[in-house]
Write a structure and sequence with these properties.
Length: about 160
């Protein structure tokens, strides 16, 4: 079993996190024009990851490689788990679970009672397995095509 080191994300990780987010999204069989439409949303900015983003990295011969990351962000008074991505080569290794549990621990230490996730439909079962409950569906059309996303909540 590979050991991955959990650490706070740094602003200079933005490019690596962006590459990983785009690789993770492209793993699913989405149309190419949808992936292009999501390009900006999958681009992480240094100032965005400065506070509550966390990475898992593994040691390689010449340094380290980020294999997964997630973050906590606030929108309109609610805190969300954002950008929970695991390199597809490492799916099933418990890395996503470790990151989400860490983010929820941080949220608890911040005094939060609820954390939300607007999930990709492919990840809904993952979050539910970790204790999230489906709250509602959000309309999120892509390129003029209908799409709904499950919005789940973790009660802390």
């Amino acid at each position: 079993m590979m050991t991955a080191i959990l650490r706070q994300a740094q602003q200079n990780d933005a490019d690596a996190l962006t590459r990983l987010a785009k690789k993770g999204k492209a793993h699913w069989p989405y149309p190419t024009h949808w992936l292009a439409a999501w390009d900006e949303a999958l681009t992480l900015r240094p100032e965005q990851i400065a506070a509550n983003y966390f990475v898992l990295e593994r040691q390689v011969d010449v340094g380290s490689e980020i294999i997964a990351f997630t973050g906590l962000e606030t929108f309109e008074g609610r805190w969300y788990i954002e950008h929970c991505w695991v390199d597809p080569a490492y799916h099933g290794g418990g890395h996503g679970k470790r990151l989400v549990q860490h983010a929820l621990m941080v949220a608890t230490s911040m005094g939060l009672k609820v954390v939300w996730v607007e999930s990709d439909p492919n990840a809904q079962a993952f979050y539910e397995k970790l204790g999230a409950v489906l709250d509602h569906w959000a309309d999120r059309p892509v390129c003029g095509e209908a799409r709904q996303l499950p919005v789940l909540r973790f009660q802390l």
